Amino acid sequence: MRARVEEDRKGRRIVHEACLTPCAIEQGMRLIGGKWTGSILWHIKDGPVRFNDLARMIGGASKKMITERLRQLEAQGLVSRQVMHTAPVSVHYEITEFGRTALGFLDELRKWSEGLPDDMANR
């Protein structure tokens, strides 16, 4: 479906085929659009990562925020969580096959962002 706006004979603007349910872009943004979500997926793409190591990799994000995002990603099936019964107990996070499907466009976003002018990139 493609929404469009047209004018009638009296100059009134009328919307045709309005999106009444979330479109594909909105659905995707709901899954990975949260702050730090893309960074988390990107940092665990090469294999399991311990929580504290992930927190160190993502500068600027609090451990609480990372925990919240990881829980969301796990609930959505993008990330798997494994408790390692060692002393002390450690938790590893790994991207799932479903999560890997997001890596292509995250890489394109990375490339696009690297090409932004400096005044845009630092906003």
Helix percent reads 40-55%
Supply the number of helical segments. 7
Shape: elongated
Strand order of the largest sheet: 3-5-4
Strand residues, percent: 15-25%
From the alpha-carbon coordinates, what is the Rg to the nearest angstrom? 20 Å
N-to-C CA distance: 34 Å
Number of strands: 5
CATH class of the domain at 35-118: Mainly Alpha
Tell me the CATH architecture of the domain at 35-118: Orthogonal Bundle
Major sheet details:
3 strands, antiparallel
CATH superfamily of the domain at 35-118: Winged helix-like DNA-binding domain superfamily/Winged helix DNA-binding domain
Oligomer: single chain
**H and E string:** EEHHEHHEEHHH
Weakly predicted, low-confidence segments: none
Kindly identify the CATH topology of the domain at 35-118: Arc Repressor Mutant, subunit A
Q: What is the arithmetic mean of pLDDT?
A: 89
The helix/strand class is alpha+beta
